Write the structure tokens for this entry.
Amino acid sequence: MTQLSNYMTTPLIAILRGVTNEEVVEVTGALIEEGFTMIEVPLNSPNAVESIRRIVEAYGDKALIGAGTVLTVEQAEAVAAVGGKLIVSPNMNPAVIKRTKELDMISAPGVATPTELFAAIEAGADAAKAFPADAIPPSTIKAWTSVAPKGYPILAVGGIHAGNMADYLSAGAVGFGIGSNLYKPGKTVAEVRAVAKEMIQTISAL
């Protein structure tokens, strides 16, 4: 069974929104070399499932690889079919969570309220994605962790950078999804690597 905890030694998910099939393997390789262990290709990226297939083939034994912006059961099934193991959504859809778990994948749905958080837990999600984090302050995360099952993983995603990680960690978040601050179309592999290195150094020092 795929366990999220196996990949949380570096609690950062790289979100490669907009990545192309041609660059995805090289970008992912640089991220893994710098210490990232979780890679997400949002499904609104060009030919996203093909990108996932390519990086699973290249690095599936080195990292937890999967999709973001997963909105339907059918999309989760398409990711499973190419070997993806991680399903991240911007919303909390119990049907997607249920199917994700049936397929032995990690489920991390988006939540923005305590009601959504507890619905995600009840549906069987492995972790909750506090999204968008720049609209969910650390004080809110602290309140959620005080009432959620002890140790339940909450990841902060959206607007996360090296300067605000400490505040979210001290509030009880256990990890982060890093999107445009790490990768966006047009960035070179060297630029992505430099930011990745900074973020790994930051999280390692906290």
